[in-house]
């Protein structure tokens, strides 16, 4: 595994100045793919500006003061991705990774009341035993559940780090979604209609805002009665 990549060759989803640092840390594959992730050190140095030098940030991470989704992380190349939450001992704010309208990773500031809340999208469901299923999420995590109503495409509101389910958001007319891909990436919209294709083509969504996209790009964040607060994007 290569520890570093030339900044000019880094994923375009990473929003960093291309000429400030010659090298950028390569995230470890795991929870997110390299294409869909960003190294913890990069977020702390280049996004949050917690230090100018790689050594400074590495020291903070190694001290055990950094948590991702409520769990201590000591690996500077830990792979962060969409909806992951980051908290640092000594800082009042908690940060969430989302996309901007160019499909690049940005950091949103959230309050302490949302520090232990996260939305995860179900991407897989596999039988583990009698009436028991292993449910896999978009961020590489999974849980064991007996809830047969859960299905791929649903989004769960969970409490971290224990991953207890506090709510379920279905993709249906009236749902509010955040778009993670396509020409409208980074925008929120309200589902008007779900068009299920009988062929191998992807299912489509149309929105009240007057456009449409494929189902895979839609990440439910709310319903007619509730909308999850993604936070306020901080400037870099």
Provide a descriptive summary of the structure in words.
- The protein is mainly beta.
- The protein is 7% helix and 39% strand.
- It has two helices and 20 strands.
- The protein has helices at residues 40-47, 54-62, and strands at residues 4-6, 23-25, 38-39, 66-68, 71-72, 79-80, 85-88, 94-99, 105-110, 117-129, 132-137, 142-145, 155-159, 164-169, 176-179, 188-195, 204-207, 212-214, 218-222, 232-233.
- The strands form five sheets. It has a six-stranded antiparallel beta sheet.
- The longest helix is centred in the N-terminal third of the chain and has 9 residues, at 54-62.
- The two termini are 29 Å apart.
- The model has no long low-confidence stretch (mean pLDDT 88).
The sequence of SSEs as H and E is EEEHHEEEEEEEEEEEEEEEEE
Counting DSSP E segments of at least 2 residues, the number of strands comes to 20
Biggest sheet overview: 6 strands, antiparallel
User: Looking across the biggest beta sheet, what order are the strands in?
Assistant: 5-4-7-8-9-20
Beta fraction: 35-45%
Give average pLDDT, whole number.
88
Compute the separation of the termini in Å: 29 Å
Instruction: Output the radius of gyration.
Output: 18 Å
Gross morphology is: globular
Which range best describes the helical content: under 10%, 10-25%, 25-40%, 40-55%, 55-70% or over 70%?
Answer: under 10%
- How many helices does DSSP assign? 2
How would you classify the helix and strand content by structural class?
mainly beta
Unreliable spans: none
Quaternary state of this entry equals single chain
């Amino acid at each position: 595994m290569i520890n570093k990549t030339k900044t000019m060759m880094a994923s375009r989803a990473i929003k960093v100045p291309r000429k400030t640092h010659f090298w950028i840390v390569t995230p470890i594959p795991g929870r997110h793919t390299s294409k869909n992730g960003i190294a913890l050190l990069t977020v702390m140095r280049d996004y949050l500006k917690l230090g100018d030098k790689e050594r400074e940030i590495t020291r903070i991470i190694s001290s055990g003061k950094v948590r991702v989704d409520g769990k201590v992380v000591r690996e500077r190349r830990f792979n962060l991705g969409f909806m992951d939450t980051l908290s640092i001992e000594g800082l009042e704010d908690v940060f969430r990774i989302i996309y901007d309208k160019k499909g690049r990773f940005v950091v949103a500031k959230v309050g302490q009341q949302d520090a232990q809340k996260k939305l995860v999208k179900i991407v897989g469901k596999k039988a583990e035993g009698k009436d028991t299923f292993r449910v896999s999420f978009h961020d590489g995590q999974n849980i064991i559940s007996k809830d047969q109503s859960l299905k791929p495409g649903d989004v769960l509101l969970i409490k971290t780090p224990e991953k207890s389910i506090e709510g379920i958001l279905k993709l249906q007319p009236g749902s509010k979604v955040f778009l993670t891909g396509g020409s409208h990436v980074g925008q929120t919209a309200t589902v008007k209609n779900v068009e299920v294709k009988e062929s191998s083509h992807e299912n489509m969504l149309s929105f009240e805002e007057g456009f449409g996209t494929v189902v895979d790009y839609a990440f439910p964040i709310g319903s007619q009665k509730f909308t999850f607060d993604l936070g306020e994007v901080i400037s870099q």
